[in-house]
Design goal:
Number of strands of chain A: 26
Structural class of chain A: alpha/beta
Number of strands of chain B: 16
Radius of gyration of chain B: 17 Å
Shape of chain A: globular
CATH architecture of the largest domain in chain A: 3-Layer(aba) Sandwich
CATH class of chain B: Alpha Beta
Distance between the termini of chain B: 13 Å
Radius of gyration of chain A: 28 Å
Helix content of chain A: 40-55%
CATH topology of the largest domain in chain A: Rossmann fold
Low-confidence stretches of chain B: none
Order of helices and strands of chain B: EEEEHHEHEHEEEEEEEEEE
CATH class of the largest domain in chain A: Alpha Beta
Mean pLDDT of chain B: 88
Oligomer: heterodimer
Strand content of chain A: 15-25%
CATH topology of chain B: Purple Acid Phosphatase, chain A, domain 2
Strand order of the largest sheet of chain A: 3-4-2-5-6-1-7
Strand content of chain B: 25-35%
Helix content of chain B: 10-25%
Largest sheet of chain B: 9 strands, mixed
């Protein structure tokens, strides 16, 4: 690009994003380096550090003091504290003071602090927060960033001149460990900070980071690890996963009292609230009434697509707010997101419609008003969203919840009970996922590679992989070396063994793997760009595939017309049209957590009592009474010791509706299990559809007697075999295998810049799944796919618990004359998948009127 | 399934091949010999048995139909590097055993190979395309008709047919035939495919297990 073109682009960008935001300035940093290293004793350094706090008008919190002390005494551990309470300073205070008071560092600069954050969008904020006291105190400590967005120049600079503090992501850290000479560079690391650790717990991303850290600890032997986490139920386990197996972590809890008040927005007439749906837009007037443009408001939605639709709807209702509001979600261009975050901080923006992209630790001042559209589906998540409102310690927090359908009114009430009781969900790590292990072996095969005995030792120092057996490890070694498990393939070339060390056979093989590092399975994304102008963000390829040139869509709060698709970029131009189609991203609805389910069942019981006049109704239950009465008159409302099953016959066939309130993934599992068992009694084709509240079985033939239905749902004997035999089990495993194939490097990912090359290496994970099943049916990665389905998706333990509970309960099997309010969402869930969207909404409205009749 | 094209009978086979009974001609598109080996060399696992399995399938099919000629409709091999000694030997053995003539229409994947055609495969005749009666056999499908007198049989795109019925969705390989052209599914058992959009005046035949369904 010519210089003038660069300038022009710069101006365009400036016009688009306003004044340039503060950046990490390389020159300023270089000047900082020239400043002399101060001669400070440790006591003096502590004094200056706490003095800085006082000058900001802050008193260090007890948890900060505790963390600094624990670091001084050489401990590792975990700090549990709500987002935005000053945890960054708690974590870096100790190591920074340590660093500045060590005169050795004046002569011998070394990478001392590694700060790992799961969101690359947060890295810059964190680096700036760390730099603030350093700049004020004139401490010549260098802070740098390393994320997927870091330029090649900055990466080179890093190698030439190490910073003292590096802020990075798990993936970028793994890539840093593939550079030649990383051992020398990381040797002096004293502190590893793991930010937002609860986000990584319970994920394969966390498992891979555990392994990466184990390798790092093998080199940086004196490093202390500090995890920062929001409160989750199993903090001890989370701490132990962070510091590694067999160590005693210190756990520091911030005792910041915080009262959360959850308020549910209720429509004046319950008829206005739909019986099914996830968008919540029918309550737009209620939500708009709660927004005061004089105060800042955050409006959270559960999906990116809903954020787009809400933004547009509010804009149409209140066009005068257009300069005060913005949209923020993970698929928007980084510059745009940054602009929005800056706008919240400066107060220039008064309403931001956001997804969980704003959930994590971006530090901004308290927002007066937090509105959550739809249930958070877990108590811990609701508490975390609440963290965005009135951050100031000690102050009360109010979250307003807008229900997207009538049952969510009940969910809101259940959430509040759960929050009041202080209940939280657990997050447990997957048990030694082999796909992650295979990737880690490959990540360790760069340059001179690894010595298997050393590496096994490091692998077993993690919590997730401490129980890896010799057999599993040697299987994984053979797998990266020879390809197959059953037979050796002489042509296979990936990793070779040279004098006992495993390493890539060629630079080409290494390069190819480098692009595969990480565990995040992303839809292949397409860049959205205005022709001759700004990049707006990313959109799913599958969504673009359905667009025709000329179609008008809504993206990033703008209305644009799709022009053409070229080189993985969708070109658009601004357009004017009311009610365009909002962009849709793939993603699934979150299942209800185990804890929230049990609260919800209690709320259902309260609803029953209210109808029978036994309970003093809460506002939510009061609002739901008209619907509860229809339910009670057409069918029953179950008590806490009953399970409700409704049956009916329509022109479509025989329906059975079962209500468990256990979350859709468990419901889907039980539905397919029951379908399999019933169809074995009498050959029959049964369709299954599930929601968070229950499932529907539909067949053309009668489904069986009441007794048979009851047995199909509650008999625990032969549970595993029946699940494995049920029809959708291989299909679910095929889906799980997609992620496994990607993580273990079984399929070629390619570089986003070289999409057209290497066509001859394209292979879909789905086809590979079939090939594995045919030629290596006992392959460990195939077995893992099936295990993940039963453990993590169907949650077999939870399923078993549900079935045991149902077997002890009274089963109310009620024939219903026509659809009940409970049955309606299940019925819609099934028909939804075969109707186009426009027709669907009309048809739903009609259906709802019929049910009300 | 037997269909009439330009007054000739053709047999669409669930083994993902085409048979012309009047000529005893078996047509196989996108065979992709040595695909597993190509993948293995680049460090991606695919079992070599899949290639052996495909050869067995081909032999059994030719025997069952008493085919006198076999025509490979392009992309006989997956890549030049995948044509290892073992692959050459195995295919040569099949050529020896097959009691009839073999013709190879070259496809885009075969370009490198055409210049270094293995000696052992000299029994097979190579050509860019073949015309038999009013039928043209070539690898790449045509955009528009050649004219009224030629019907084109092609491969290359590995057509896959999407069936949606309520919540049920399946994706099956198949044949797509219109008034001037017919496209064959890929014979290879380790190949994916391209979803063909539904166009008017087209007959679509999906392969489900050992049966063919016209949609």
């Amino acid at each position: 690009m010519s210089t003038s073109a660069k300038v022009l682009r710069g101006i365009q960008r400036l016009n688009r994003t306003g004044p340039p935001r503060p950046r990490l300035d390389a020159d300023e940093q270089a000047r900082a380096r020239i400043k002399p290293w101060p001669t400070l004793s440790r006591e003096q350094a502590w004094e200056e550090w706490t003095g800085w706090f006082e000058r900001q008008g802050w008193t260090p919190f007890p948890f900060q003091l505790e963390t600094w002390q624990a670091f001084e005494t050489g401990r590792s551990g975990l700090v549990a504290v709500p987002t935005g309470s000053g945890k960054t300073y708690a974590a870096v205070g100790g190591p920074i003071v340590n660093l500045i008071s060590d005169p050795m560092n004046a002569r011998n600069p070394a990478l001392t602090i590694l700060y790992v954050t799961p969101l690359k969008a947060l890295a810059r904020d964190i680096a700036q927060a760390i730099q603030r006291p350093l700049a004020d105190l004139s401490w010549p400590i260098l802070v740098d960033l390393r994320t997927g967005d870091t330029t090649a120049t900055a990466r080179r600079r890093f190698k030439e001149r190490l910073p003292h503090v590096l802020v990075t992501t798990p993936e970028s850290l793994a890539i840093l460990l593939t550079d030649r000479g990383w051992e020398e560079r990381m040797h002096d690391v004293q502190a590893i900070v793991l930010d937002e650790w609860h986000e990584l717990m319970g994920t394969k991303r966390g498992s891979l980071l555990e392994l990466t850290l184990a390798r790092l600890r093998g080199v940086a032997t004196t490093a202390r690890v500090w995890a920062l986490s929001a409160t989750i139920a199993n903090l001890e386990e989370a701490a132990s996963v962070a510091v590694g197996a067999g160590k005693e972590p210190t756990i520091i809890r911030a005792d910041i009292p915080r009262h959360i008040t959850l308020h549910c927005l209720l429509p004046e007439s319950i008829q206005r609230c739909p019986w099914f749906g996830y968008s919540g837009l029918s309550l737009l007037p209620e939500v708009v009434a709660r927004i005061d443009p004089n105060h800042s408001t955050l409006l959270f939605t559960n999906t990116r697509s809903h954020a787009e639709r809400w933004y547009q709807a509010i804009l149409e209702a209140k066009p005068e707010w257009s300069s005060l509001m913005a949209l923020h979600h993970g698929s928007l261009d980084q510059d745009e997101r940054q602009r929005v975050e800056d706008g919240i901080k400066s107060g220039g923006l008064r309403l931001v419609v956001a997804t969980s992209s704003l959930d994590l630790g971006v530090d901004f001042p308290p927002v007066q008003n937090v509105i959550q559209i739809g249930s958070a589906k877990s108590i811990a998540r609701a508490v975390q969203r609440a963290g965005r409102a009135f951050h100031r310690p000690g102050e009360d927090t109010l979250v307003q919840l807008c229900p997207t359908n009538v049952m969510e009114i009940l969910e809101a009430s259940a959430l509040r009970e759960g929050v009041q009781d202080g209940v939280l969900e657990e997050r447990t790590q997957p048990e030694k996922p082999l796909d992650v292990l295979v990737q880690f072996l490959l990540n360790s095969s760069f340059n001179d590679g690894f010595d298997p005995a050393d590496l096994l030792h490091q692998i077993r120092s993690t919590v997730s992989f401490r129980a890896v057996t010799e057999e599993e490890f040697s299987w994984a070694l053979n797998f990266i070396r020879f390809g197959g498990s059953l037979s050796a393939y002489p042509e296979f070339r990936k990793v070779e063994v040279v004098e006992g060390w495993y390493r890539f056979v060629s630079a080409e093989a290494a390069r190819r793997h480098k692009m595969n590092i990480g565990t995040i399975l992303s839809e292949s994304g397409v860049t959205v760009q205005v022709r001759g102008g700004a990049r707006l963000g990313m959109i799913d390829e599958t969504f673009v595939a359905k667009l025709r040139p000329g179609d008008v869509i809504q993206f990033g709060g703008r209305t644009v017309q799709f022009l053409q698709m070229r080189d993985m970029t969708a070109y658009v131009k601004p357009a004017r049209q009311r009610s365009p189609v909002a962009a849709v991203w793939s993603g699934t609805i979150l299942p209800l957590s185990l804890q929230l389910s049990s609260y919800l069942r209690r709320e259902v019981d309260r609803l029953r009592q209210a109808v029978e006049g036994l309970d003093q109704p809460s506002p939510e239950i009061d609002a739901l009474l008209p619907i509860a009465r229809i339910q009670a008159s057409r069918s029953r409302i179950p008590s806490i010791t009953q399970t409700l099953i409704e049956t009916c016959r329509t022109a479509e066939g025989h329906h059975v509706f079962v209500y468990t309130w256990e979350g859709w993934s468990v419901n889907e599992g039980l539905g397919h299990l029951a379908a399999y068992r019933l169809s074995r009694l009498c050959p029959n084709t049964i369709a299954v559809s599930a929601t968070n509240y229950g499932f529907e079985l539909l067949s053309t033939e009668p489904l069986g007697s009441d007794r048979e239905i009851g047995l199909a749902l509650t008999v625990l004997e032969g549970l595993e075999q029946d699940i494995q035999a049920s029809q959708n089990y291989p299909e679910l495993a095929r889906r799980a295998f997609r992620e496994i194939a990607r993580i273990a490097g079984l399929v070629y990912q390619g570089s986003p810049f070289a999409r057209k090359t290497a066509r001859h290496l394209q292979m879909s994970a789905s086809l590979l799944f079939d090939v594995f099943r045919q030629y290596e049916p006992s392959h460990p990665l195939l077995a893992q796919a099936f295990r993940e389905v039963s453990d993590r998706q169907l949650q077999i333990d939870r399923l078993r618990g549900l079935m045991r509970r149902m077997s002890e309960q009274e089963l109310l099997i009620v024939p219903i004359p026509r659809l009940t309010p409970f049955a309606f969402p299940l019925y819609v869930e099934r028909i939804k998948s075969r109707l186009s969207t426009e027709k669907l909404e009309q048809r739903l409205a009609r259906l709802q009127r019929e049910v009300f009749r | 399934m037997r269909i009439a094209v330009r007054d000739e009978w053709f047999e669409l086979l669930p083994e993902r091949a085409l048979f012309w009974p009047a000529r005893g001609l078996l047509v196989v598109a996108d065979y992709h010999l040595g695909k597993a080996e190509t993948f293995q060399q680049q460090g991606f696992w695919l079992p070599s048995q899949s290639g052996q399995q495909d050869l067995k399938r081909l032999s059994a099919l030719a025997l069952k139909l008493e085919a006198k000629h076999v025509l490979f409709l392009g992309d006989l091999v997956h890549s030049l590097s995948g044509v290892t000694e073992a692959v050459v030997t195995e295919f040569a053995r099949w050529l020896q055993e097959f009691n009839g003539s073999v013709q190879v229409v070259l496809g885009n994947h075969d370009i490198g190979l055409a210049r270094r055609w293995p000696q052992e495969w000299s029994k097979a005749d190579c050509c860019a395309q073949a015309t038999i009666g009013q039928f043209r056999f070539q690898h790449q499908p045509v955009e528009r008709p050649f004219g009224a007198d030629l019907f084109c049989w092609a491969g290359h795109i590995h057509p896959m047919i999407h069936l949606t019925q309520g919540p049920d969705r399946v994706r099956l390989p198949g044949f797509v035939i219109n008034e001037y052209q017919g496209v064959l599914p890929a014979f290879s058992s380790v190949s994916g495919g391209y979803d063909v959009p539904l166009r008017p005046a087209e007959r679509r035949f999906a392969i489900g297990g050992d049966r063919i369904y016209e949609l």
